[in-house]
């Protein structure tokens, strides 16, 4: 075996069977592969949440011989110098934000040793978009694939780099760690890259909303529906950097070379913001992949990337050198701008809905763009310089998968038509169980529970007592929404009805799905804010298709309910317009619009407010796979469920995988037998020693 070392990484080439045996995988592995290793140190940090790590060219000039060298590629502000309004208790991997890049070739084995040095929290890591073929225990969600990696311990994840594409990793411990900094990109290069001749270089760009106190906004009262604790978004970053052009917070830059064509791999790693619409001034873009899956190239002038989604575009740097504006717009937030948006009960107004970076031509003589005032009442927009001062208009499609029209913009590069009928159909409903009012004595996160409906049960997620995969869902999962898919089923159709006034972004672990149908409601689009507060009399949904989020709660569901103070009705007009309702999929009317020939292949999908979406997936990858809303506040409030796929074929759990709870791991019988034998041996030896000591004591008497 030959070993090649790089910072935080070791590669082994070619694949050595001895090392693969040490990987303890019960599944056969490909012969021609590399083993790519990383070592991660997860620690608590105090950072400026708008710029947790800062390129050394910003801070290091003239401060020592190692500044800016290969030994010091990032720096951090000393906590004593951070303004208290910007100071954040962060959790970072190897001191970086975003965290380290994982880069491998399709079919490689990836090994990541996670050393948990957090002071008071366990952690787990999920590999968002990777399928974990043969290693479902490495998927990461706590109490589904594994128990937490506890403080002062470590665990090594081992999995196949599959499929090829743009992905990312993040903590799957709770709703906090990802927004506190535990996330980073994954790039898996295809064995046969279909678009390789279109570009000469690559860059990764992660966009995310940023939060100083995710504890307040994502886990406690701030996560509850109908509360004014936190805005939908205030700040957003490009590769971990927010900027307004000042010396303290310079603009984030994507530095490029003129004459080169770049594959820009965009990742929305956000927490609460539902989406960002990305535009690049002066440069036409060709979209080539969504969620890691290649599509037929199409020129786009903008693309909407939802929470958890990825979009790959090719951009050629063929303009005059300068600084060209890049915009990330949260269009839903723009409807709630302070002083300009519409009033929504329980929602805090937002201070900003657009954030900016610049495409920077290396070597340009143009001056840097001047600062702008991000929270000015007139909503200033930065201006580019050099060639970017007057950029040419861009052309192309507007790519937005929020509503049906976006699905006609492109199709898979290699379409795989589906059969007319699936093997089984399920209906999943997204909604809220009330009541939602916030009172001083309410227990946090106990009011207003989100759910993913199974067979009308309105089941909100509760944590199983032992990891579901470790018991095949047969122990410790009482009252947990687990869908046992029949063993003989291959193709599953999911009808997803959203019975709420908010969009949900759903992500499926363990594989791709095909989006075959999406609602088209002209009365409920991003431009028609009235959809949020439609009264009963103006409800355009046919009566037979209406459903309510909580049929048992009059505050949420009963249109004619009026609260009283004694005998006097309060006559609150908004009570007559229940917020939590939706217009369900009606197969007899809606099935004719489905696309079985060229449906887009994805692992993350937006389900618009009061709307529905239909997807199909192949239930052929044995494991316990999470299906959940990817908006961070919806996780602790229960919008999750699990698909239990082919339990009889699920591979044995390696004995190194963290577990906990009262239930035994189904495949550890030999370990338990040995533990029992060891216990008997220890007990026998202890007993014999006791008798010997007792007899000696009697002799002395």
**CATH class (first level) name of the largest domain:** Mainly Beta
Largest sheet: 12 strands, mixed
The CATH superfamily of the largest domain turns out to be Cupredoxins -  blue copper proteins
> What's the alpha carbon Rg, rounded to whole Å?
27 Å
Give the class from helix and strand content and strand pairing. mainly beta
| Number of H- or I-type helical stretches | 8
CATH architecture of the largest domain: Sandwich
Percent helix, as a range, is under 10%
**How many independent structural domains?**
4
Which parts are unreliable, with pLDDT below 50 for 5 consecutive residues or more?
A: 1-31, 56-73, 557-576
Number of strands: 39
What is the CA-CA span between the terminal residues? 67 Å
- Round the mean pLDDT to the nearest integer and report it: 85
| CATH level 3 topology of the largest domain | Immunoglobulin-like
Domain Plastocyanin-like: 80-192, 204-331, 587-647
Family: Belongs to the multicopper oxidase family.
Keywords: Copper, Metal-binding, Oxidoreductase, Signal
Protein name: Laccase
Topology:
Elements: E1 2-6, E2 9-13, H1 17-22, E3 35-48, E4 54-55, H2 56-59, E5 74-75, E6 87-93, E7 102-105, E8 109-116, E9 125-128, E10 153-160, E11 165-171, H3 177-180, E12 183-189, E13 201-210, H4 214-219, E14 235-238, E15 253-256, E16 261-268, E17 275-280, E18 285-290, E19 293-306, E20 310-316, E21 322-329, H5 331-334, E22 354-361, E23 385-386, E24 397-399, E25 424-433, E26 449-454, H6 468-471, E27 482-484, E28 491-498, E29 504-508, E30 513-518, E31 546-548, E32 564-565, E33 568-569, E34 581-583, H7 587-590, E35 600-602, E36 604-607, E37 612-618, E38 623-629, E39 640-645, H8 669-700
Parallel strand pairs: 3-8, 7-12, 13-16, 15-22, 19-24, 25-28, 27-39
Antiparallel strand pairs: 1-2, 2-3, 3-6, 4-5, 8-10, 9-11, 11-12, 13-14, 16-20, 17-19, 17-21, 18-19, 18-20, 21-22, 21-23, 25-26, 28-37, 29-36, 29-38, 30-35, 30-37, 31-34, 32-33, 38-39
């Amino acid at each position: 075996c030959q070993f090649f070392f790089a910072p935080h990484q070791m590669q082994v080439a070619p694949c050595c069977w001895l090392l693969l045996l040490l990987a303890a995988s019960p599944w056969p592995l490909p012969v021609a592969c590399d083993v790519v290793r990383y070592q991660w140190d997860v620690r608590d940090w105090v950072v400026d949440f708008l710029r947790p790590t800062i390129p050394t060219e910003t801070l290091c000039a003239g401060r020592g011989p190692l500044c800016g060298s290969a030994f010091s590629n990032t720096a951090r502000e000393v906590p004593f110098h951070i303004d208290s309004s910007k100071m954040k208790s962060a959790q970072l991997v190897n001191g970086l934000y975003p965290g380290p890049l994982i880069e491998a070739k399709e079919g490689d084995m990836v090994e990541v040793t996670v050393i948990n040095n957090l002071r008071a929290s366990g952690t787990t890591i999920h590999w968002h978009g990777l399928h974990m073929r043969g290693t479902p225990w490495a998927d990461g969600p706590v109490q589904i694939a594994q128990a937490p990696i506890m403080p002062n311990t470590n665990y090594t994840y081992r999995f196949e780099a599959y499929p090829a594409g743009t992905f990312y990793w993040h903590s799957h411990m709770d709703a906090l760690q990802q927004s506190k900094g535990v996330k980073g990109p994954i790039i898996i290069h295809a064995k046969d890259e279909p678009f390789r001749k279109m570009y000469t270089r690559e860059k990764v760009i992660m966009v995310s909303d940023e939060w100083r106190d995710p504890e307040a906004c994502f886990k406690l009262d701030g996560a509850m529906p109908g509360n004014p604790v936190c805005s939908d978004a205030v700040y957003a970053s490009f590769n971990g950097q927010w900027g307004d052009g000042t010396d303290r917070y310079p603009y984030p830059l994507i530095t490029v070379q003129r004459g080169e064509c770049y594959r820009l791999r965009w990742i929305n790693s956000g927490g609460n913001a539902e989406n960002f619409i990305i535009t690049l001034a002066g440069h036409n873009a060709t979209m080539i992949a969504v969620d890691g899956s290649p599509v037929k190239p199409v020129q786009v002038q903008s693309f909407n990337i939802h929470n958890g989604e990825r979009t790959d575009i090719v951009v050629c740097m063929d303009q005059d050198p300068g600084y060209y504006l890049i915009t990330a717009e949260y269009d839903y937030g723009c409807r709630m701008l302070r002083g300009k948006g519409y009033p929504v009960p329980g929602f805090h107004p937002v201070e900003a809905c657009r954030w900016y970076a610049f495409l920077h031509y290396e070597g340009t003589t143009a001056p840097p763009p001047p600062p702008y005032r991000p929270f000015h009442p007139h909503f200033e927009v930065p201006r580019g310089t050099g060639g970017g001062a007057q950029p040419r208009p861009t052309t192309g499609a507007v790519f937005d998968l929020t509503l049906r029209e976006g699905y006609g913009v492109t199709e898979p590069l290699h379409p795989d038509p589906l059969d007319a009928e699936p093997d089984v159909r399920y209906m999943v409903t997204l909604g809220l169980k009330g009541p939602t009012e916030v009172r001083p004595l309410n227990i946090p996160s106990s009011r207003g529970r989100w759910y993913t409906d199974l067979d009308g049960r309105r089941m909100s997620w509760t944590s199983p007592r032992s990891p579901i995969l470790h018991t095949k869902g047969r122990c410790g999962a009482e009252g947990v929404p687990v869908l046992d898919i029949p063993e003989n089923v291959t193709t599953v159709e999911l009808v997803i009805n959203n019975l709420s006034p908010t969009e949900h972004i759903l992500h499926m672990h363990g594989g791709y799905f095909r989006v075959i149908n999406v609602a088209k409601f002209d009365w409920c689009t991003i431009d028609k804010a009235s959809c949020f507060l439609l009264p009963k009399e103006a409800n355009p949904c046919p009566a037979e298709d209406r459903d309510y989020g909580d049929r048992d709660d009059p505050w949420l569901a009963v249109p004619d309910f009026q609260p009283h103070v004694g005998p006097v009705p309060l006559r609150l007009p908004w009570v007559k317009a229940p917020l939590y309702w939706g217009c369900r999929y009606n197969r007899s009317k809606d099935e004719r619009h489905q696309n079985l020939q060229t449906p887009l292949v994805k692992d993350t999908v937006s389900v618009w407010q009061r709307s529905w979406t239909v997807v199909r997936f192949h239930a052929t990858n044995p494991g316990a796979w999470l299906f959940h809303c990817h908006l961070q506040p919806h996780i602790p409030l229960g919008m999750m469920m699990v698909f239990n796929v082919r339990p009889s074929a699920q591979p044995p759990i390696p004995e190194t995988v963290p577990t906990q709870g009262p239930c035994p791991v189904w495949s550890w019988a030999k370990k338990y037998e040995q533990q029992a034998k060891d216990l008997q041996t220890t007990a026998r030896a202890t007993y014999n020693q006791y008798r010997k000591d007792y007899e000696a004591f009697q002799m002395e008497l």
